[in-house]
């Protein structure tokens, strides 16, 4: 079954599954004060070269919504890309966990917020104007929902604009590892050194069963999160299994190895498609997502062969699709097989 619908249609990586089994032996303290969780936090501190406050949760939606809840009052505004996961795909969880903050969609190519668009949006919400929500947070997705990656200069500039306006900055890093190996920089450089205050650090899509970390780079700003996580129903009683997943994910660079595999498959897929006649690539591939504009006959051949992937809307991405074409999103993961990629390319070439 060739499945390019998402990176979470894969299973759990062998190393992480083994770590879950190992953690299953015997008893361990409940509610996240176990040695597995302590080990995961220590590894994250080492990797990010900083003392951190770490909160493990089971879903990316919980990580994002709780992180925004820590940054933003109920009367606040969260600025994000108009196609951001928090804006489109979390069923109002960010609004709920902030107790009612407003999300403001900002434009930008390939899911990246453009600095000029951010400045314009901020100007529309003057500080102290009592009829309007007050700017509180900027949320950046790295990699973006279009598979693009902000470079360090772009991240730094956006964080500076936000901080100058008194906002905190959140990063949705559901695909943090895929972006990181693409930029080939350190985790610190792609986060707190660029100005990120709080990070949703994903593991599920890159090999874990269900585990994401909320990372607060200034632990003094994390005082409310233990209560918000518990109140939100995301403090797992058998929290050791989150700790075991995260520790195994990080140990010996497993997370980076998995991301490199996923990205390499995406690179191969994008290169193969770029050479197929009639196929157009809307923007360069960077992480493990490939967007392509296929001629209808190629789409039909792929569908007929049982290949799975999503048609995607190009709204807010420049509306590039013409009549007789299909705009598609293709995801690869650590579990993708090279033969699947090659078969896809062959079918698209017809
Ligand atoms: C998958 C994803 C998430 C997390 O989604 P969950 O299904 O809640 O785990 C968050 N942000 C982005 C950009 C994603 O792609």
Automatic annotation (TrEMBL):
Domain Aromatic amino acid beta-eliminating lyase/threonine aldolase: 3-292
The protein's assembly and partners: Homotetramer.
Function text: Catalyzes the cleavage of L-allo-threonine and L-threonine to glycine and acetaldehyde.
Enzymatic reactions: L-threonine = acetaldehyde + glycine; L-allo-threonine = acetaldehyde + glycine
GO molecular function: L-allo-threonine aldolase activity
Protein known as: L-threonine aldolase
The keyword Lyase appears for this protein: yes
EC number of this enzyme: 4.1.2.48
Gene3D superfamilies, sorted: Aspartate Aminotransferase, domain 1, Type I PLP-dependent aspartate aminotransferase-like (Major domain)
Organism: Methylocella silvestris (strain DSM 15510 / CIP 108128 / LMG 27833 / NCIMB 13906 / BL2)
Cofactor requirements of the protein: pyridoxal 5'-phosphate
UniProt record, GO biological process: L-threonine catabolic process
Keywords, in A-Z order: Lyase, Pyridoxal phosphate
Family as reported in the entry's similarity comment: Belongs to the threonine aldolase family.
């Amino acid at each position: 079954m060739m499945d390019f619908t998402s990176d979470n249609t894969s299973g759990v990586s062998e190393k992480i599954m083994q770590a879950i089994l190992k953690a299953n032996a015997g008893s361990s303290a409940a509610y996240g004060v176990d040695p597995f969780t302590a080990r995961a936090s220590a590894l994250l501190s080492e990797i990010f070269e900083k003392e951190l406050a770490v909160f493990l949760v089971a879903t990316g939606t919980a990580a994002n919504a709780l992180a925004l809840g820590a940054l933003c009052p109920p009367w606040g505004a969260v600025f994000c890309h108009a196609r951001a996961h928090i804006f489109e795909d979390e069923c109002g969880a960010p609004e709920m966990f902030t107790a009612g903050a407003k999300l403001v969609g900002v434009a930008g190519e390939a899911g990246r917020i453009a600095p000029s668009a951010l400045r314009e949006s901020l100007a529309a919400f003057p500080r102290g104007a009592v009829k309007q929500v007050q700017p509180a947070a900027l949320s950046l997705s790295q990699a973006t929902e279009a598979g693009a990656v902000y470079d360090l200069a772009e991240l730094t500039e956006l964080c500076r604009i936000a901080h100058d306006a008194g906002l905190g900055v959140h990063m949705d890093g559901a695909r943090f590892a895929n972006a990181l190996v693409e930029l080939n920089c350190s985790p610190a450089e792609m986060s707190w050194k660029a100005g990120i205050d709080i990070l949703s650090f994903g593991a599920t899509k890159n090999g874990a069963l269900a585990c994401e970390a909320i990372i607060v780079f200034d632990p003094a700003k994390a005082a409310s999160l233990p209560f918000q996580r518990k109140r939100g129903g995301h403090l797992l009683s058998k929290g050791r299994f989150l700790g075991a997943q995260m520790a195994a994910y990080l140990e010996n660079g497993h997370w980076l190895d998995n991301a490199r595999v996923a990205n390499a498959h995406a690179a191969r897929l994008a290169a193969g498609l770029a050479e197929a006649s009639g196929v157009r690539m809307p923007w360069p591939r960077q992480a493990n997502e490939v967007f392509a504009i296929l001629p209808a006959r190629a789409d039909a051949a792929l569908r007929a062969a049982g290949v799975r992937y999503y048609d995607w809307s190009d709204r807010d991405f420049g509306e590039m699709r013409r009549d007789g074409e299909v705009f598609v999103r293709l995801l690869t993961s650590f579990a993708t097989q090279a033969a699947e990629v090659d078969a896809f390319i062959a079918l698209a070439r017809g």
